[in-house]
Specification:
Layout (H helix, E strand, L loop, with lengths): L5 H19 L4 H31 L23 E6 L2 E3 L4 E2 L6 E6 L6 E8 L8 E4 L4 E6 L2 E6 L5 E7 L8 E8 L4 E11 L8 E4 L2 E6 L7 E7 L5 E8 L6 E4 L2 E3 L2 E7 L7 E10 L8 E9 L9 E4 L18 E4 L17 E7 L2 E8 L4 E3 L19
Parallel strand pairs: 1-11, 3-11, 13-20
Antiparallel strand pairs: 2-4, 4-9, 5-8, 5-10, 6-9, 7-8, 10-11, 12-14, 14-18, 15-17, 15-19, 16-18, 19-20, 21-22, 23-24, 24-25
Helix pairs in contact: 1-2
Length: 398
């Protein structure tokens, strides 16, 4: 490949002319004039040759070509500076036309379509224009640069082939397209694209849930929990468990909601609030990577005695604030209630700092609590009775 330029040709001509000046000085006049005319013709011919070859020299890139010329969506190719239209090529050698999400880096070899040439390559999700995976240079003749968030592998030096390393994306983002453009030693442009498809993990085996059915019989005594054993063939398989009921509402529950085989699933049937009768539901065990479908366990609840009502306990407000500044504090109350029938309950008090908070009764009077922190105790509120307390106070008051 020619590597000189017009300025270099002019410098060569000038140096050659200076050398000739020494020779011409010693020549007879007629011969000296003939030599000058010959030198002028040679210099003019050299300048014309240099100018003629300059477009081809200036239009090429011996290293690091312009970016975003891989033929990807919204991009051009190298035909703006080289010979077109683009032909089909170049050849890229892949270890596989599939990729493993989160897998290790792989090496690709890009072969020049002819002689010492150049290339540029990018990898995109299909049909998106974003970056897919990570590119790095695989040898001394290649390079990687970024423009608008897209990586481009390209030649750092003209060669017959280049090596590029590519690390797959961490997750499965679908089919990918490798766009590549190359220029051969004669300036001819080549463009093509290759498809990469993700490797789908094969199913891991089958799961089994046993027993296939559970029955709870409520006759007035609290029901014990029952278990379902979930196992798999081969390796451990992750699964989830869920419940549905045909009648009776939310009387059926399972724990844990998910695990890996082998594992047990605890099943609870709560008859509270239900009328006498029969209720049915289903426990479903699902493992997406198993070869077989979800496993179901039928659950039957027989209620032969009236169970307790479904009740809930409430307390409001959820917080109380007392501000003591030397004046006896006014009392505050907490209202305790329940849905359905009345419930027996107990109370207790805990402080994070500043003393001890207790609840109790003193001389027939109900106190929500007393504060002990400064050597004296001060009652500060009426409330529920937790038990008889000794209310002797260090300040002589009761």
């Amino acid at each position: 490949m020619v590597t000189f330029s017009v300025p270099l040709l002019l410098l060569f001509s000038r140096l050659h002319g200076e050398e000739k000046d020494f020779e011409l000085a010693s020549m007879p006049a007629p011969k000296r004039n003939d030599e000058k005319r010959s030198i002028a013709k040679l210099a003019k011919a050299g300048l014309i040759v240099g100018v003629a070859i300059m477009p081809g020299l200036l239009s090429g890139h011996s290293s690091n070509p312009a970016l975003a010329l891989t033929g990807a969506p919204g991009e051009g190719t190298c035909v703006q500076c080289h010979n077109g239209p683009a032909l089909v090529g170049p050849t890229v050698i892949f270890p596989s036309t599939t990729y493993t999400p989160g897998g290790p880096a792989v090496s690709w070899t890009i072969n020049s379509p002819g002689g010492l040439g150049g290339f540029e390559l990018s990898v995109r999700p299909d049909p998106d224009t974003a970056q897919a995976g990570t590119l790095t240079a695989g040898d001394a003749t290649s390079d990687v640069a970024i423009q608008a968030g897209i990586q481009y592998a390209r030649h750092f030096a003209r060669a017959a082939s280049w090596v590029v390393n590519w690390t797959p994306p961490a997750t499965n983002i679908g089919s990918l397209t490798v766009f590549v453009v190359a220029v051969d030693a004669n300036g001819q442009v080549y463009a093509t694209k290759y498809a990469l498809t993700p490797v789908v993990a094969p199913p891991q085996g089958t799961i089994t849930a046993s027993p296939s059915a559970l029955t709870f019989n409520y006759g007035g005594t609290a029901l014990a929990t029952q278990s379902i054993q979930v196992v798999s063939s081969g390796v451990s398989i992750a699964f989830t468990s869920s419940v549905t009921t045909v009648t009776g509402g939310t009387w059926l529950s399972v724990a844990p909601p998910g695990a890996g085989t082998p594992a047990g699933v605890t099943v609870t049937a709560n008859p509270n609030g239900l009328a006498i009768g029969q209720y049915t539901g289903t426990v479903t065990v699902t493992a997406p990577t198993a070869t077989n479908g979800p496993q179901t366990v039928g659950v039957t609840l027989n209620v032969t005695a009236v169970p307790p009502p479904a009740t809930t306990l409430t307390a409001s407000p959820s917080t109380l604030t007392f501000n003591y500044s030397g004046v006896l504090l006014a009392t505050q109350s907490i209202q305790v209630g329940s849905s359905g029938t009345a419930l027996a309950f107990t109370t207790a008090a805990v402080t994070a700092s500043g003393g001890r908070l207790v609840d109790g009764r003193c001389n027939g009077r109900q106190y929500a609590g007393e504060y002990y922190g400064d050597g004296q105790s001060r009652r500060f509120g009426y409330g529920a009775v937790h038990g008889d307390r000794d209310c002797d106070r260090s300040d002589g008051q009761q």
